[in-house]
Write a structure and sequence with these properties.
Blueprint: E1 2-6, E2 15-19, E3 29-38, H1 41-47, H2 54-57, E4 70-78, E5 90-94, E6 102-106, E7 110-112, H3 119-123, H4 126-139, E8 147-152, E9 155-161
Antiparallel strand pairs: 1-2, 3-4, 3-6, 4-5, 5-7, 8-9
Length: 166
């Protein structure tokens, strides 16, 4: 299968479009056919990992060359312990290697794609939504049952009630 990979740290020039082995899902994973992926700051971080963090990602070069986190696609196959998804389901979530034709994703990091949402829209959500949640919950210190008003250019965009159980 084709994928964008990063075999060395550095500028965007280190990214290459190559043929790599199609992943095989583990017992708790889902193999999805990628229909859309989005780029976010996390993708930049892993291409230029600070030296101190390279102990986890690889000292001289990345241990895992696959890049891309945010993904939207269709379930191809599921691991034997997966109960939430079936082949054909349209899903979105966060994984390793979203910039490829296929990606394996932990069942716990996926959600069903709403029917009225495109794959491109769904693939733009995971990291941005987590960042927003962390900002509201951790930095904004909102607590369960508090209401939040999100305002953009003088218009109410959304009002939500935070529930820490969901």
């Amino acid at each position: 299968m084709k994928a964008i990979v990063c075999r060395n740290y550095g500028s965007p020039d280190v990214l290459k479009y190559e043929e790599i082995e199609k992943p095989t899902p583990g017992d708790n994973e889902v193999l999805i056919k990628v229909r859309a992926a989005s780029v976010n700051p996390v993708d930049r971080l892993f291409r230029g990992v600070p030296h101190v963090l390279r102990i986890m990602t690889g000292l001289r070069k990345p241990k895992d060359p696959r890049v891309g986190v945010d993904v939207g696609g269709q379930v191809e196959t599921v691991g034997r312990n997966v109960t939430q998804f079936k082949p054909g389901h349209e899903v979105f979530g966060a994984c390793k290697g979203a910039f490829a034709e296929y990606a394996c994703v932990s069942e716990s990091r996926l959600a069903m794609k709403p029917n009225k949402v495109t794959f491109e829209q769904a693939a733009s959500v995971p990291v941005a939504a987590l960042t927003a949640l962390q900002g509201l919950r951790d930095k904004g210190q909102i607590r369960s049952a508090q209401k939040v008003l999100i305002n953009a250019r003088g218009k109410v965009v959304i009002t939500l009630e935070y529930n820490d159980k969901t």
